[in-house]
Amino acid sequence: MPTSSCTKESHVKLKKLATMIAVIGTAAPAVAQQAQTDKPIQRVEITGSSIKRIATEGALPVQTITMDQLDKQGVTNAEQLMRLISANGTGADNMTSGNNVFGADADRVSGGGSFASLRGLGPTGTLVLINGRRISGYGLSGKAVDLNTIPLAAVARIEVLKDGASAIYGTDAVGGVINFILKTNYEGVQANATGNWTEHGGGATRRLQVVAGHGNLDTDRFNVMVAVGYDRNNELDSHQRSFANGYQPARGLSPDTTGTPVANQLTGAGTALGSNFQMPGDPNKYLQAGLLSLQGKCDSVQGMNQYATALWKDVTSPLRSTYSCAYDYGGDYVMQLPTERTNGVARATFQVNPDHRVFAEAIAAHTNSLAILTPAQISTSLANGNAYPVGGPYYQDLSPYIASFDKTKPIIYKWRAWPLGNRTQNYTTDTVRLMTGAEGVLAGKWDYKIDLSHSESHTKTDLVDGYAYTSALYQVLGSGVVNPFAAPSQGQSAAAMQALEGTKFYGRLQHGKTTLTQFNASISGEIWQLPAGPLQGAIGTDLRREGYGFAQDVDATKILLAPGNANQDTVNRNVKAIYTELVVPVMKNLELQLALRRDDYSLIGATTNPKIAFSYRPTSWLMLRGSANKGFLAPSFAQLYSGRLDQELPNGVSDPVGCASHPGDPRYCAIERLNYFSGGNPNLRPETSKQGTLGFIVEPNANFSMSVDYWAINVKDRILNRTPQVVLANAAALGEYIHRNADGTIDYVDAGWINAAGLKTRGADVGLRGRGNLPDGWRWNATLDGTWTQSYQFAEFEGQPYVEYVGNFYTRDIYLRWKHNATFSVNKGAWSFLLSNLYRDGYKDQVPNGGKGTPPAGFNPHVASYTTWGLSTTYTGLKNTTVTVGIQNLFDRDPPFTAHNVDEVVGAGWDPRVADPRGRSLSFDVKYRFF
């Protein structure tokens, strides 16, 4: 990596320190900056090592991001930050995508949270740290850290380790580590106001921050710092963006739901439409009908359109919806959730003497977000008593269009219950971490750290609109007072609204809590002098007690479409770990890092994970580096101990193994009341990994550097969520989850979380840095951080072939071939200008409608690439003031079109995992330093 211009004497000193090159390096030119101040070169602990080293490029790839970079690119929260990290997965771990279900194997941690997913291995495969220490996971799931809890107001920089680090940090570090480094020894008071407003309306973001510090550790022997931040994101709705449109039949996209705001009538024995109906001169039999469809007026109601039968041919029911209207609920989603965050840090440090300091620190965050879904879809039936009654004031007679219509019979229908309101869930998360500790130097050469911390995260879910008690609602619908055939523009009667209001549920639905108590102690330093330099080592211990509990505050089964999970009593587990690390100068310019860690879980067992890394400089302008290590990912509390639900499969289920050997026997071929369990699995094994990197850094001069690091990860025993149908269909591979009686019949099936097969992923990270002079005193600086994914393969079960997913649509993550974030800046005096570029490669699109219909001639099977540009200018010429004005998405690029429907990925016609729906926006950032 480039360094700032140094004196000749400084270069000589650095050359003598070649064997002291950091095992982990940063992109910041820290060495040069320190040399310019004539202060001694500081040794610092950098993410990925327990040994304090000189901050420069080392054996492992670490990307450093400063808050100044984020401000100039209009980034206002940690979720937006993750878009700038090319190594982060293109997945569903953001607040928009997390508002929907992503496949049966999705280990969902969303619901008001935002998460990291390095290498696309999922949030639980990425370790998030604050100042190198853990913080409790998201309260509702007990898994990954919610990025919304990170106090950006006090963050100095973010270090992203793009390599496995279980040998240093333990579990969760399979995909890598994101370490938020807080400010220390801060003096003065600074206020920061940031705003970002979209050109097309909606989705505005605002942030206020204040940082205050007093005392200098070098002169006053103490420092006290307080930082507080407040963020607010406004709602952005799909109808505010034309590209969020699920009805584009010419491109193969059309909604499949007939649960419309103006109800469609259903067929059924004993109902007005009977078991089916025919149209004059047409021998076909149909199963649904809507008055607006029969009149050709579906599009007279916003969000509705004529059902595109040609795109949705169903082999089992080809004529189901020919005379029905469809509802584009993909165009009726909330693309940016309304969110408020308040977080802060208070830290006090006392310098006991030049060699020892003690500190106390408190971090707290409060997040409030609304997950807003479309109104509930209801299919009525005679059995449920909610059919529209004969003689009701809004009885819809279709006999002028359908001769067989019997108006002496009740009507059953499918309806989007708009008078109930949008289903709205309020997520409130409170997180706190308290820490005290000491650090310093023993005997003049041994660096030590010791700290004790406790953190908790509480998340509560309240239903604030759109939910009703099922039985009470059905009774009101069956009375006929509600008009399901009225458009929203027509409204409902006062009596209907009063009756519906009486059925609604408001209040606490569920709550969860995670706890983490941790004691850390480590010591490091030079052990003895070798011919090539000093042998350095570290040894430490990590003792943790983790806990998680979850409870439903009401019986969710009695509330229509309310999200429900089984209660989980509070479970605790103890983790005892010891780790050691060596930095060995083998020969001049060749250095090894050796690390070993053993973790012992009270409820899982013990695991030992080694790591070896090297850095070698054959010349002054070239460094070779690489690593090899093992990792592990412990099952989460929810995966292990979430309440097991005892359920039954519908009658007629077949046992593929038993039926083959006992054909025609109903005990095997048409099973009645087959029991299965879903939920946690206390017998889960940890996921394990083998991984490594191999790369080089070329730095021909101080103004240019290039790094390329090839990485490979193999994971075994992946923990996936599987349905009983999937288990039965793959009985040969998943036989251990099918429990049989003595006679060979199935007793029950274990579904839910299981250890499935593995995955293999390969790729390379590329980093470019350049700088130089321009005429008239201007200087330029350019950067590029990119990730090329060569392969991402996994098998659904052990023994099945691996399938390649790079460049192909998938319901959890999209594994793009290439992603990058690039910047080019120029500066002179008080002025600086930054041009930024974000690029996401294209991929093969999903087959429209699951292949049930014939794609139209205009269908393009490839989703286009997505690229946006940003431009900002910063002025520091005002006393104590820095002003940045920027435009994000400079050319107002819409997300590329994709033909998937919202049932699999939220956002029909576009994909929130790849693109930002906000469009062109204007940002302001003003900093004022009072003193």
TrEMBL record:
<protein>
    <submittedName>
        <fullName>TonB-dependent receptor</fullName>
    </submittedName>
</protein>
<keyword id="KW-0998">Cell outer membrane</keyword>
<keyword id="KW-0472">Membrane</keyword>
<dbReference type="InterPro" id="IPR012910">
    <property type="entry name" value="Plug_dom"/>
</dbReference>
<dbReference type="Pfam" id="PF00593">
    <property type="entry name" value="TonB_dep_Rec_b-barrel"/>
</dbReference>
<comment type="similarity">
    <text>Belongs to the TonB-dependent receptor family.</text>
</comment>
<dbReference type="InterPro" id="IPR039426">
    <property type="entry name" value="TonB-dep_rcpt-like"/>
</dbReference>
<feature type="signal peptide">
    <location>
        <begin position="1"/>
        <end position="32"/>
    </location>
</feature>
<dbReference type="GO" id="GO:0009279">
    <property type="term" value="C:cell outer membrane"/>
</dbReference>
<keyword id="KW-0732">Signal</keyword>
<keyword id="KW-0812">Transmembrane</keyword>
<keyword id="KW-0675">Receptor</keyword>
<keyword id="KW-1134">Transmembrane beta strand</keyword>
<dbReference type="Pfam" id="PF07715">
    <property type="entry name" value="Plug"/>
</dbReference>
<dbReference type="InterPro" id="IPR000531">
    <property type="entry name" value="Beta-barrel_TonB"/>
</dbReference>
<feature type="domain" description="TonB-dependent receptor-like beta-barrel">
    <location>
        <begin position="394"/>
        <end position="890"/>
    </location>
</feature>
<keyword id="KW-0813">Transport</keyword>
<dbReference type="InterPro" id="IPR037066">
    <property type="entry name" value="Plug_dom_sf"/>
</dbReference>
<dbReference type="InterPro" id="IPR036942">
    <property type="entry name" value="Beta-barrel_TonB_sf"/>
</dbReference>
<keyword id="KW-0798">TonB box</keyword>
<feature type="domain" description="TonB-dependent receptor plug">
    <location>
        <begin position="60"/>
        <end position="177"/>
    </location>
</feature>
